[in-house]
């Protein structure tokens, strides 16, 4: 949801058109997150005033506005700019509601913001009483006006205030979730970045190799110091070895560029050196110097932030020869699944090594229950492996929607193992559920695709699925990699049970075959494309049915179809057919039925007979060579594999079906309406 890009340079001869181009490139990289308007602001090096551009619609509409105003041909020196794609929460999409939001007509303070300020009405009422006039409907405008109010108060008191101190005063008044970039004409070579709940990272580019790989955090004392212990005026900061990140060589300041973004894809073409900010961090960049502050002391909080190397290439976030990112990511699944298993499975010895949870395995094995918590597609991956966890560990396994879990706040005990699944690692409801479980004493494991994400940092241990960047809003390769990662996890936890050894070996052999078999399934695309063309012509609703391991595939198929093609679709456990859904069956509604070989094959076959008896026309996903499925039916035949992995093969043609339904419908496949890739607010 929403996208943030920021830029600040020191001793670099950048023109305004260069900075505008850089910011626009970042916004284009963030288009996949979902948005309805866009804007940017740059500092004019001659007038030392901000120039503000905002537009409704796609980033291309903003690009047109910039061309009209000659902003892309201006050679004026420029060292500072911020940009934003907005997904409307407060106020309809309009230029005046777009970001950056300004403090006043002169743009003394400008802010871009992801998230929701929950106390914005109280702040707005207070500021209106002080004489500040609001022009937008957004919650973000109160941040800019609050900054101006605090600055004015300090000015009246003849007490100059630093930008970092002013930012702290602003942040202390905000409630809710946010990632913020704040700039001001009063601090023309500085920028503030702060986060609480929404992701934000900071990239660094220099002409010399960085001499340090961390930045100390400036943390205040937990208690105000006694005046008898320190003389007045002494800093209240905790002493540390190297508080700031200062770019210099032999005492000479060095050229530096800082890139700020809500997602690494926006900065990867400029630098691979990045620092992920954590909740309640306030980063202050002043020329070539970086400080990271915190408002309050937390004994469990790390005292430094690591300079990390981004582990992906620009080519991975480009479409290449594909028409859409979703199409590209569906085709990448043989490689993404292979990367999930790479270095973790020894097929010769039939053994599994998971370094991310290695130290916690003895603790996890003592747990009495597994709780999987997730949203959307990640929730379905939990359902996909629930049966196997119960089978191999002989323990109860429950799968919870994070939002419902938070609403109920069920009891969580110290001997519970709580598994949090999220592609981005920044899903708001899942993070809040994680914190609830941590407070309750459960062992918390993260299954994420993004190194350094909030879930990655706040869980006790975890597994990175290593699926590579996923740009399309509709998750595809992350789903199959999540299933494979979770299956490897349960295989590792059950390795001591000799009675299950043959079953474990069967699954490991299936994992060895799965990459080749996914490639086989991908060859079915032309047939699926023709099927999609016939479905799209007359149908506005679909039913998807299966049971056992395929129930999760039903739910995921239904979600994919509805989110990209806008066709109503419903995933149904076929064992529940007689309990209501059978009333919907007739000769007009398409019914997709998963009828692949497993222990429930005969039961699903009975469901097929019930559909036929009601003149239904099923589309059957079955195994190659299954002679029991008559040729009169429309079939999609996939390779046979061990039951717990069959869903990985079955879902791939359904992803292709959803994709082609959306293409034939003329819809924006990668950015479905009203949806965002990473849901970072509740």
Mean pLDDT over all positions: 88
Main structural class: alpha/beta
Number of helices: 18
Biggest beta-sheet profile: 9 strands, mixed
Explain what this protein looks like in three dimensions:
This protein is α/β, with parallel strands linked by helices and 682 residues long. 33% of the residues lie in helices and 24% in strands. The protein contains 18 helices and 31 strands. Strands 5, 6, 7, 8, 10, 11, 16, 17 and 18 form a nine-stranded mixed beta sheet that branches. The protein is globular and about 85 Å long. The termini are close together.
Q: In a few lines, what is going on in this structure?
A:
With 682 residues, the protein is α/β, with parallel strands linked by helices. Helix 9 packs antiparallel against helix 16, helix 15 packs across helix 18 (643-665) and helix 16 (550-565) packs parallel to helix 18. Residues 222-243 have low confidence and may be disordered.
């Amino acid at each position: 949801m929403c996208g943030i890009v920021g830029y600040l340079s020191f001793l670099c001869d950048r023109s305004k058109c260069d900075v505008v181009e850089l910011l626009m490139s970042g916004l284009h990289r963030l288009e996949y997150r979902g948005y309805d308007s866009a804007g940017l602001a740059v500092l004019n090096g001659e007038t030392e005033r901000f120039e503000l551009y905002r537009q409704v619609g796609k980033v291309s509409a903003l690009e047109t506005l910039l061309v009209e105003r000659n902003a892309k041909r201006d050679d004026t020196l420029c060292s500072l700019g911020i940009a934003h794609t907005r997904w409307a929460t407060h106020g309809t999409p309009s230029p005046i509601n777009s970001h950056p939001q300004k403090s006043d007509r002169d743009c003394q303070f400008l802010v871009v913001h992801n998230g929701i300020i929950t106390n914005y009405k109280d702040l707005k009422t207070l500021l209106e009483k002080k004489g500040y006039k609001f022009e937008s409907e957004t919650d973000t405008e109160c941040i800019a006006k609050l900054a101006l109010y605090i600055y004015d108060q300090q000015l009246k008191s003849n007490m100059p205030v630093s930008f970092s101190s002013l930012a702290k005063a602003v942040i202390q008044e905000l409630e809710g979730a946010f990632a913020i970039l704040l700039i001001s004409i009063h601090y023309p070579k500085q920028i503030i970045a702060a986060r609480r709940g929404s992701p934000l990272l900071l990239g660094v580019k220099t002409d010399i190799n960085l001499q340090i790989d961390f930045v100390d955090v400036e943390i205040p004392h937990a208690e105000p110091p006694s005046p008898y212990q320190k003389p007045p005026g002494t800093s209240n900061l905790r002493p540390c070895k190297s508080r700031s990140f200062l770019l210099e060589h032999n005492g000479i300041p060095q050229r530096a560029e800082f890139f700020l973004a809500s997602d690494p894809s926006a900065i990867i073409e400029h630098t691979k050196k990045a620092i992920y900010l954590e909740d309640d961090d306030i980063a202050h960049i002043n020329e070539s110097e970086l400080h990271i502050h915190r408002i309050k002391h937390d004994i469990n909080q790390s005292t430094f932030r690591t300079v990390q190397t981004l582990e992906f290439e620009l080519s991975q976030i480009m479409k290449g020869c594909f028409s859409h990112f979703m199409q590209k990511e569906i085709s990448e699944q043989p490689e993404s699944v292979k990367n999930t298993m790479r270095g973790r499975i020894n097929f010769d010895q039939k053994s599994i090594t998971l370094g991310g949870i290695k130290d916690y395995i003895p603790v996890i094995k003592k747990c009495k229950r597994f709780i999987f918590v997730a949203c959307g597609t990640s929730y379905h991956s939990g359902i996909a492996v629930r049966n196997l966890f119960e089978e191999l560990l002989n323990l109860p396994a429950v799968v919870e929607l994070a939002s419902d879990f938070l609403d109920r706040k069920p009891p969580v005990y110290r001997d519970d193992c709580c598994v949090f699944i999220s592609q981005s690692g920044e899903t708001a409801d899942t993070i809040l559920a994680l914190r609830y479980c941590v407070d309750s004493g459960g062992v918390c494991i993260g299954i994420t695709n993004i190194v350094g994400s909030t879930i990655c940092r706040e869980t006790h241990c975890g597994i990175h699925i290593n699926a590579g960047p996923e740009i399309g809003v509709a998750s595809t390769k992350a789903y199959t990699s999540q299933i494979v990662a979770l299956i490897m996890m349960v295989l590792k936890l059950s390795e001591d049970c000799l009675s299950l050894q043959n079953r474990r070996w069967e699954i490991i052999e299936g994992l060895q075959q799965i990459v080749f078999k996914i490639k086989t399934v991908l060859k079915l695309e032309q047939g699926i494309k023709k099927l999609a063309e016939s479905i799209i012509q007359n149908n506005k609703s679909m039913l998807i049915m299966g049971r056992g391991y395929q129930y999760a595939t039903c739910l995921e198929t239904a979600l994919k179809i509805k989110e990209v093609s806008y066709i109503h679709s419903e995933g149904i456990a076929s064992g529940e057919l007689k309990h209501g859904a059978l009333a919907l069956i007739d000769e007009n509604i398409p019914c997709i039925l998963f009828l692949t070989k497993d222990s429930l094959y005969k039961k699903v076959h009975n469901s097929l007979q019930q559909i036929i008896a009601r003149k239904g026309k099923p589309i059957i996903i079955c195994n190659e060579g299954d002679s029991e499925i008559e040729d009169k039916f429309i079939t999609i035949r996939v390779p046979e594999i061990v039951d717990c992995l069959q869903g990985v093969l079955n879902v791939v043609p359904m992803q292709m079906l959803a994709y082609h339904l959306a293409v034939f419908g003329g819809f924006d496949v990668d950015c479905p309406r009203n949806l965002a890739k990473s849901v970072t607010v509740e």
